[in-house]
């Protein structure tokens, strides 16, 4: 016998199941937009001493962009620069931190916010004990050219020095520079503010010291670089970093680093004569006129 109730109940159950499925689909639709923003950022850090700082600045930038939700994944293991760049070009690596030049800015997307606010632009001179008199009265680039600099053959500094016709002695092994300086092969080694004191300790067996009134200013900039496969990520990080510059959070993070503290401790101990050296390798789009992006050392400069 045809059962009207059974048929009605069957249709009602079917309808109820379909309604339940539709409701689940609607819930998924509502949830998925927030999930779709979740993305893994694969990054690689070459310079181990800046690992924590780079990660802190990246996390800070992302916090300052409310709409972005990301998972950070650091690429482990040691890669050659060629390997890392190939992975950047393929999109396997999203982000690296590099000292900028025209070639890199054509190959990848630069985020033009200097990671160290130009701190690496300043070079002190490591000299041989007893040679201090050679540096008296050296106040400009032409006078500096009368002295010989010991430099690594592949350093960016070397390219800039050669372009400005400074007198250089080259070595392919930078560790050889210290005994060469002791032996009188040249007069000084240009070293960054954060480099010179640790190196003097490392090579304490040689009679070397810091020259205490000449500071070279050679504009050098480290940026985050993003793969061209991910332009949206570059914009997000840039926006977050600039917001952090404006709200003061960038400086708070920067000024807690050992690099900053040690450098400022050293520079505050002396009054410096700054010799500017033009860096023709620096791309034209470097934001040198944006004062908020750069460290001001005016109070320590004669």
Textual characterization of the structure:
This protein is α/β, with parallel strands linked by helices and 302 residues long. It has 2 domains: 37-115 and 222-264, 3-Layer(aba) Sandwich (D-Maltodextrin-Binding Protein, domain 2); 119-217, D-Maltodextrin-Binding Protein, domain 2, CATH 3.40.190.10. It contains 11 helices and 11 strands. The protein has helices spanning 4-36, 51-63, 81-90, 102-107, 141-144, 156-163, 177-182, 196-202, 231-247, 249-254, 258-267; strands spanning 38-44, 69-74, 95-99, 109-110, 122-128, 148-152, 167-171, 188-192, 208-217, 222-226, 273-276. The longest helix is centred in the N-terminal third of the chain and has 33 residues, at 4-36. The N and C termini lie far apart (108 Å). The relative contact order is 0.17. Mean pLDDT is 88; it is low at 1-15 and 28-37.
List keywords for this structure.
302 residues; alpha/beta; D-Maltodextrin-Binding Protein, domain 2; five-stranded mixed β-sheet; four-stranded mixed β-sheet; 11 helices; 40% helix; 20% strand
Chart the SSEs and their pairings:
Blueprint: H1 4-36, E1 38-44, H2 51-63, E2 69-74, H3 81-90, E3 95-99, H4 102-107, E4 109-110, E5 122-128, H5 141-144, E6 148-152, H6 156-163, E7 167-171, H7 177-182, E8 188-192, H8 196-202, E9 208-217, E10 222-226, H9 231-247, H10 249-254, H11 258-267, E11 273-276
Parallel strand pairs: 1-2, 1-3, 6-7, 9-11
Antiparallel strand pairs: 3-10, 4-10, 5-8, 5-9
């Amino acid at each position: 016998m045809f059962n009207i109730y059974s048929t009605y109940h069957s249709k009602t159950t079917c309808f109820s199941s379909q309604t339940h499925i539709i409701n689940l689909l609607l819930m998924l639709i509502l949830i998925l937009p927030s999930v779709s923003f979740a993305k893994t950022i694969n990054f690689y850090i070459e310079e181990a001493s800046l690992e924590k700082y780079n990660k802190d600045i990246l996390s800070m930038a992302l916090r300052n962009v409310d709409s972005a939700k990301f998972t950070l994944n650091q690429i482990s293991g040691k890669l050659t620069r060629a390997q890392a760049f190939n992975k950047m070009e393929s999109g396997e690596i999203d982000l690296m931190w590099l000292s900028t030049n025209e070639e890199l800015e054509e190959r990848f997307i630069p985020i033009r916010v200097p990671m160290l606010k130009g701190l690496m632009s300043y070079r002190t001179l490591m000299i041989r004990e007893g040679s201090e008199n050679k540096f008296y009265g050296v106040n400009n680039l032409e006078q500096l050219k009368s002295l010989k600099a010991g430099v690594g053959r592949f350093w960016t500094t070397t390219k800039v020095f050669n372009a400005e016709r400074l007198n250089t002695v080259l070595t392919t092994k930078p560790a050889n520079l210290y005994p060469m300086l002791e032996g009188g092969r040249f007069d000084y080694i240009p070293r960054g503010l954060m480099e010179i004191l640790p190196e003097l300790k490392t090579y304490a067996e040689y009679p070397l010291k810091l020259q205490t009134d000449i500071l070279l200013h050679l504009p050098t900039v480290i940026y985050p670089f993003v793969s061209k496969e991910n332009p949206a990520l570059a914009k997000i990080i840039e926006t977050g970093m600039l917001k952090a510059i404006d709200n003061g959070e960038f400086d708070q993070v920067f000024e807690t680093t050992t690099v900053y503290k040690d450098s400022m401790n050293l520079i505050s101990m002396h009054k410096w004569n700054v010799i500017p050296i033009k860096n023709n390798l620096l791309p034209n789009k470097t934001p040198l006129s944006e004062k908020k992006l750069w460290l001001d050392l005016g109070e320590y400069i004669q």
